[in-house]
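We now fix the convention by which a protein and its fold are recorded. The integers have meaning only within a learned vocabulary of local backbone shapes. A record is reproduced here so that you can trace the correspondence yourselves:
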Amino acid sequence: MMRAEEIKVSSKGKVLVAMSGGIDSSVTALMLHEAGYEVIGITMKTWDYASAGGSRKETGCCSLDSINDARMLAVDKGFPHYILDIRGEFGEHIINNFVEEYLAGRTPNPCVLCNTHIKWEALLKRADQLGCDFIATGHYATVREENGRYVISRGKDLNKDQSYVLWGLSQESLKRTIFPLGQFEKPAIRKMAAEAGYEELANKSESYEICFIPDNDYRSFLKRRVPELESKVDGGDFVRTDGTVVGKHRGYPFYTIGQRKGLEIALGEPMFVLSINPETNTVVIGTKEELERQTMWVRDYNLVKYAKLPENYQALVKIRYKDAGTMATLTEEDGKIRVVFHQPVTGVAPGQSAVFYEGDDLVGGGFIDRKIDFPKFTEVKSTGALSDK
């Protein structure tokens, strides 16, 4: 296990650790406990698959097995552990938003909303009740204080870096947050678990799906949540950028920007989803070149490194979690951020997160707005294919 002096975190104190039962949050608790913090573990029950309408066996962070794993580790190390049921808040804010975003023709980002409005809020509230100075999670990221601001940076393990989903955290939240794993790579975390005597934990598998869709089939999830959906949206038009109808689709919520597979349409060359119009149940498709965008707008943004963007500011912008990022010029205008990429990008999807980086530092982020640069869509026929302006 790690020596206390190797954990570069804030001064010792009482810390509430979010424990899912997985390896990352468990090692987080072990590291802080060994470093001399007074640890209290908490496991948040955010959902259960049966109530969401599924039949698959419950797995992952909210399963009974995972909750028991977290509790047993706490018992073994002699620190308190609590279970917090936030299924009501999670369903109201995260699952409902997930459905509403797809019905609005956007691609949602539930992990960002969950971190910002559910998990951190719940953790801080319970931390205050239990007299904790800090909260800690197993995210692969780091946080430091610089120039009066609390700044998030990428984790050392760039393959595991999770800073992308943390852009919505407030300065007040970051002031009390510890990310011990940000300084390590995943193999080192597995080694720590094994050396501490937790071989089973060290070899525990990980899930990369959305927690409330463990089968990774969001289309079936939407159909279960909105039973009448399929009958209402089936048979809408596929159109080209000039408004020409070229086929029928299965319903606009079942498509995402940049999608190529599953269109079930043959036009002699690869076609991609360019835009989605829920008002007319229309999906605009085109070539990869037509998918390219130079400009986008970002709404509901949060700045982390700066209180206000510097003038003529340039940053690396990621439009997806696994996106390598593209340099762009950012300008705050009328309550939004205008992003002008230095070279065209593909797959700009309204509803997804756009996250800004300066080196390894997280500058901020927000949600991609429907107001995107669509210069080729000025002439649309009577099908009403576009209304993205």
About this structure: The first strand starts at residue 14 and ends at 18. Residues 244 and 381 are 7 Å apart (CA to CA). The two ends are 55 Å apart (CA to CA).
